[in-house]
Sequence to fold (333 residues):
Amino acid sequence: MQPRPAAHALRSVLCLLLLLPCLVLAAEPLPSWRDGPSRQAIVAFVEAVTDQGSKDYVAPAERIAVFDNDGTLWSEQPLYFEVLFSMDEVRRLAPEHPQWKTQQPFKAVLENDHKALAEQGMDGLLKIVAATHSGISTEQFLARSRSWLASARHPKTGRPYTEMVFQPMLELLGYLRDKGFRTYIVSGGEVAFMRAFAEEVYGIPPEQVIGTTLAAEYQDKDGQLSIQRLPKLLHNDDGPGKPVSIEAVIGRRPVLGFGNSDGDLQMLQWTLAGPGRRFAGLVHHTDANREWAYDRQSSVGRLDKALDIANRQGWTVVDMARDWRRVYPFDKE
Fold:
C-alpha cells in the first residue's frame, strides 16, 4: 500500500528537521572561534565585501589578505622559531668555523649564554642569520630548513614547530580563500625559510610568501645553474618595510590585514588607508595556560603602540584566551 501524501510529506519534514543541525554545523565558519566580537567582526566583514548586492562589495581581484607569520599564524616563544633554527645551525656548522669559539655572537650561542647573546642585540642576530642562511644555493637552504623542521622539537611542548600553528588562524585562511580571497604572508622572517613550510602548513604557495630577503646572484658553473645566497641584507620586511614589499610584490593594497606586534603596525595602517570597507586585526597573546601571555614588555613580539592605536581606532583585537576555543590543532576544546 502506498503511503498517503500527507504522511509522506510529514516524514520528509521530520527527516529535514533531523538533518538541519548537522547541515548548519557543517556550514558554520571558524569553528575554533568562540562566538563573540572578534568572530562576528570577521564574518560580518567577509560577508559584506563578498556580497554583490552590498555597498561594500569588493571584486575578487581586489580581495587581498595579508598576514604576519610569527605570533600571528604560529607561536613565537621562547624565541622566534627561525632564530632557534639559526642557533642550531651555528652549533651544527661550528666544526667548520673554529674561530666561532671566541667570536661573538657565535661564542654565546655555542656556550648557551643567553645573557651575552641578548647583549649582541639585532646586530648579533643579523650576523647569525647571515652566517647560517648564505653561502649556499636556495635549493640547499630549503633542504636544510626542511630537515630541521622535520626533526626539531619545541622546547615546551615537544611538538614539531610546524604543529605550533594556530588552529583558528588556519580556519580563517581557509574561510577567506573559500570566499575568493588571495592570502599572503608578509613577515619579518626570511622569505626562503618560510617558503620551506608555508604551502604545506598554511596552504600558501611560495609566490604568496613575502619576507626579509638576502642578496643573491645567478651562477653558472660548468652548466650547473643555481641562485647563490649572499651574506648581505637586501630588504628588512618589518615595520615600514612591509608596505613597501606589499607594493613591490603584490601591487594591490590589501583589504584585510592581521598581525600581532608593533612590527605589523604600518602594514595594518596601510591596509586601512585605502578606500572602502577594510579590516585590521591583532592577535593578542593573553593565554598563559594554553600558549603565552605577553605584550608591552616582551622582547619577542612586543605589542605596545599598535595595541593603543587598535583600541583607540576600533580595530579587531583577538583576545586569545577569550576568543579561541582551542589554540593548536592538537588541543582539545
